[in-house]
């Protein structure tokens, strides 16, 4: 297996202002694997990955990258190892897709250095992977929601990191686009050994694509493990207050959730 | 495949040329304004008069007109305009909002109060006025950021409203000082308060020139980081920009530019506010257009000043002209802002 950067965190306390969202959290990101964070809205999934990628400061605790404190690295060196696609991005309207993706090469360039041949190669590779080549000369403002998301994803791919975090990358996308993006990430993981961490709302997609699941509730990691270990009737009830049946997906052989509507469950009882 | 990217290279090259040509056009316009401002005024000077004065032969009256009146005015207007331009542009871009600029946020008003106070009550030197203006502006920003802070986050609407509040307070203080001021100081003060190029002090201008020589290379170095921040703070951070450090440096540069300029000419109404939207419209929103913003600022100040001095039966200070242009633009911007057409992130 290809060597990948190791990311761990101990005793994290994270919050905004005086409010603490996460307390006493310890996590080890499985290297070369696809991990998916699930949990109800406001449980701290986004907060956690934002703290792991130094987008928000820690109140307590330490994040370690390859055994060294994350804070001991300079910003550009981190950006060569870890990338994150945050939620709700807005690019300057007049930027073309190609220019946007070139911005992903920032950590590899010094002050006045123009884009190198290698930079252009990486940008072209990222555009090809995300099927954005035909749109490379379009302005970001003229793209549809799905295309725009793929343009941002290409930017992150051009950054060429060993660990990629994505905060709900499939929100607002039609199902084919959701699958397209997740397939792309899976391929990246299999071919390049990239460690991938995704926050996802779609539980069935999470179960299908995750090598490893982290289930969170109220700022704590409740349970972790493979999809069949985490996606159980009991766990779903505990995490989401969701009544459900779990069957095995006949094609992908992963757990498939059949959520029961509250009306329905009353009728059964 | 190759072809498609070749097309991109061509498009990109065209973009650069277009950008370059537009910058040259602004530069030519600025030079034209400089020449017009030096040549035409109450007294029209011919080329031969100007050149002979340069070589030391001209009459004492043309010497006086050129060296005491027009050169300080024109070069003062040029430097001050560029300072207001860059200062305003940086603020608007860093906060991703055209309303967030030194004029609307009350920075220029507080700078004025501070400079006025040391002038009136301590009879301080002009350099001391500049220093007071910088301190005043810095305090305004610190207070506004402090009050608008919610945890680690700046609430933008609150920030702008607090700035407007600070401006109202500063204006009240200005009125108070006007009442308290010695009548002999009043006319100077009034002119200065409406933004005027009449009493440009060469030593203040020299300070601004030195600041320019220091800051210009700094801005050139920070250009790429600034362009990353234009994508959004979080994505810039994740791409490896030290967002907080870069922002502090850029805010300081912006504050010092606008405060020093304010100490020289007084608050020229709306000048910082107008620069961003004009530069965006003309050059697009993709790059860090520091130089174009500086040129736009200088053109606005020199153009408005020349029109104010020569077109109307009464001489109008430059701030009156920019006020007449700026107020409707501010109204339109506010209406668009209320409609949510300005993306606020």
Automatic annotation (TrEMBL), chain A:
The keyword Ion transport is annotated on this UniProt entry: yes
Entry-linked SMART domains: AAA (SM00382)
GO cellular component, one term: plasma membrane
Keywords for this protein: ATP-binding, Cell membrane, Ion transport, Iron, Iron transport, Membrane, Nucleotide-binding, Transport
Pfam family, one: ABC_tran
Superkingdom of this protein's organism: Bacteria
Localization in the cell: Cell membrane
Residue ranges of domain ABC transporter in the record: 7-243
Record-level Gene Ontology MF annotations: ATP binding; ATP hydrolysis activity
Protein name: Iron(III)-compound ABC transporter ATP-binding subunit
From TrEMBL, chain B:
Main location: membrane
Membrane topology reported for the UniProt record: Multi-pass membrane protein
Pfam families per UniProt: FecCD
Subcellular location: Cell membrane
InterPro entries documented for this protein: ABC_BtuC-like (IPR037294), ABC_transptr_permease_BtuC (IPR000522)
Entry annotated with the keyword Transport: yes
Gene Ontology cellular component list: plasma membrane
Keyword Transmembrane helix annotated: yes
Annotated keywords: Cell membrane, Membrane, Transmembrane, Transmembrane helix, Transport
GO molecular function: transmembrane transporter activity
Membrane-crossing segments per the record: 65-91, 103-122, 128-147, 159-179, 205-222, 248-276, 282-304, 316-338
GO biological process entries: siderophore-iron import into cell
Annotated family: Belongs to the binding-protein-dependent transport system permease family. FecCD subfamily.
Protein name according to UniProt: Iron ABC transporter permease
